[in-house]
Design goal:
Length: about 600
């Protein structure tokens, strides 16, 4: 059968080639059937196979990819005469004359037969092109087939709908992503970025040099009519610079103070949280490789790594923002990034009152609890604002007291001067050298602290924290994941068991009841608002049960027309036991905050 091609180089000559071979290899070096001598073409870039009157294109794991009609192919792709195959700076077009010499009906090869026959290369291509053909073409064969290939119409429609849903991409976004990749690929060729030392990526001279290079590339592409008129060239230039040397589209979101969280699900899907609401953005990365590049730039400066053997990592940015990344094979859709942004200015108790997270009465009560050195646990679900509340409550600690904070990723911003900040360390490349929260909590006891503040208790460190609270380190604080004050107590019991100490449940509960004084429960509602829903005192033990008494609660009363939660904080009228002791010691306290409303 053979293949007839027309090869055109961008801004260069046009070649017509008649090849009497059914499998043709295209690449940069000699030995290929078609040699394309440019730097953005891989040594062996692509293969074109003729079979049963059809032409199939297969990318050979090239660096810059193979495109059919401007769409990158990730699997064998059936092409028609006149389709344009883009390989680097070359455009390859399949001519019709050679194909017409031997037209024959397409043979339908089913995978069971391939398996039975042992599956040679031609059979593999036949099966591959079955899956690569357009959805409509496959669906029509299912509906119009005969014998055992016929499928009920309802199942065929469901299968077609599923396939179409999986391939549905915003055309405008897809076009912009393709443009991003084209400019980025030309930049790599222009400057050979891959050979640059990553330690110099922040150098001003490098940014200036790259800025000029991107400007030259975009200007040339614009002059050649390769950039659509509706594309903002300055925005395109900024996106390329950020992706090449910075954190890609994340740079814009990190600079936006209104965004609290950034979530990269995969290269083409970036969400942000603004005002408690999660929204999909229009920004994307050019490829999964670009996402991996951003992750490397985040973790490398702090001595951490991420690869297939260690596919998840916690890190932080220079501004203190907390980062979690997880990559394939664990992340099936591609590398993911989640960034909890670090607020440049720490929130104050006045901010929580303004946001209606708490009331002035609750704020006054928490201040008294800290001054009276009551041990406190702030509990809540993920994203409920526990760390923010912990930071604000810890700011009530009087000046002059020695504070030691222990965190997985440093987030707390305390105003006190006498403050020691400790952070965990992951294992090194050999799996050694890990320092856990529990190690740091144990060590903090030897540092003569007046208060110990643990960012979050997740495991066996809870036992060490309880022992510290019970042995002279009153007024200590921590957070825990729980949905209610009662759940927080159960979580503490479970975490103590995780320490490896075989303690009877009664002994654990006695430890909890004597160590913990107050539980502050925080909740994130569906509208994105965050409220302290319970302030509860641990009263003691009754038989084998820890008893709690709510002091303040939040009563939800419905939703307004915008879907915002309506409700109010109320006092239960119960006065905590330690207030009587404060009054006996002559310490002035405001009893009006406990009046029932």
């Amino acid at each position: 059968m053979g293949v007839s091609l027309t090869v055109k180089e961008k801004g260069g000559s046009v070649r017509k080639m008649d090849l009497d071979k059914d499998a043709v290899t295209l690449g940069r070096v000699d030995g290929n059937d078609v040699v394309l001598p440019k730097g953005n073409v891989s040594k062996q870039h692509a293969r074109i196979v003729a079979k049963d009157g059809r032409i199939i294109v297969l990318d050979l794991n090239s660096t810059n990819g193979t495109y059919v009609n401007s769409k990158k192919i990730d699997a064998p792709q059936v092409v028609q005469p006149g389709d344009k195959i883009f390989i680097g700076d070359f455009v390859v077009v399949i001519d019709k004359n050679k194909m017409a010499q031997k037209e024959s009906p397409p043979s339908r090869v089913r995978s069971p037969k391939v398996e039975a026959a042992g599956g040679g290369e031609s059979e593999i291509f036949a099966v591959a092109e079955e899956s690569a053909r357009p959805v409509k073409e496959q669906a029509s064969e299912v509906e119009e087939g005969d014998g055992d290939s016929r499928m009920p119409a309802s199942l065929a429609a469901a299968a077609r709908k599923k396939r179409e849903k999986g391939r549905r991409i915003d055309p405008e976004m897809e076009r912009y992503v393709s443009l991003l990749k084209e400019v980025h690929d030309r930049l790599i060729e222009y400057m050979d970025l891959r050979r640059l030392n990553i330690d110099k990526l922040g150098d001003e001279a490098l940014w200036a040099r790259t800025d000029r290079a991107v400007g030259d590339i975009i200007a040339q592409m614009s002059a050649d009519g390769e950039i659509p008129p509706d594309v903002d060239e300055e925005e395109l230039k900024t996106d390329i610079l950020n992706e090449a040397l910075g954190l890609g589209p994340l740079e814009e979101f990190l600079a936006d103070d209104g965004i609290s969280e950034i979530m990269v699900n995969h290269a083409n899907q970036v969400y942000v949280e603004r005002d408690g609401r999660i929204k999909l953005t229009r920004k994307t990365f050019s490829s999964d490789t670009a996402v991996m590049g951003v992750i490397e730039r985040i973790v490398s400066p702090i001595g951490r790594r991420i690869d297939e053997s260690s596919p998840l990592v916690d890190a932080r940015l220079k501004d203190g923002s907390r980062v979690n990344s997880i990559i394939p094979p664990l992340a099936l859709k591609g590398p993911t990034i989640t960034i909890r942004k670090f607020k440049r200015e720490a929130l104050t108790i006045e901010d929580l009152i303004r946001f209606e997270t708490i009331t002035p009465q609750i704020a006054d009560f928490l201040d008294v609890c800290i001054k009276a050195r009551k041990n406190m646990i702030i509990s809540g679900g993920t994203g409920s604002g526990k760390t923010t509340t912990l930071n604000i409550v810890a700011s009530f600690i009087p000046e002059g007291e020695r504070i030691v904070t222990v965190e997985d990723a440093a987030e707390l911003q305390l105003p006190q001067e006498h403050w020691i900040q400790l952070e965990t360390r992951p294992p090194n490349l050999e799996g050694k050298g890990e320092i856990t929260i529990r190690d740091l909590v144990k060590n903090s006891l030897r540092m003569r602290p007046d208060r110990i503040v643990v960012g979050e208790c997740r495991g066996g460190e809870a036992l060490d924290m309880l022992q510290a609270m019970n042995t002279g380190h009153d007024g200590s604080l921590t957070t825990a994941h729980a949905n209610s004050p009662r759940d927080a107590l159960a979580r503490l019991e479970t975490m103590v068991l995780m320490s490896g100490m075989e303690l009877p449940m009664r002994a654990i509960r006695d430890q909890v009841a004597s160590a913990v004084d107050m539980i502050v429960q925080q909740t994130r509602f569906a509208d994105g608002t965050r409220r302290i829903t319970h302030v509860s005192e641990v009263v003691g033990m009754e038989v084998d049960t820890i008893t709690l008494q709510d002091i303040f609660t939040f009563k939800q009363e419905g939703f307004d027309s915008d879907g915002k939660v309506l409700g109010r904080h109320v006092s239960t009228g119960f006065i905590p036991r330690f207030y009587d002791d404060l009054q006996r010691r002559g310490i002035p306290v405001n009893m009006d905050i406990f009046r029932e409303e």
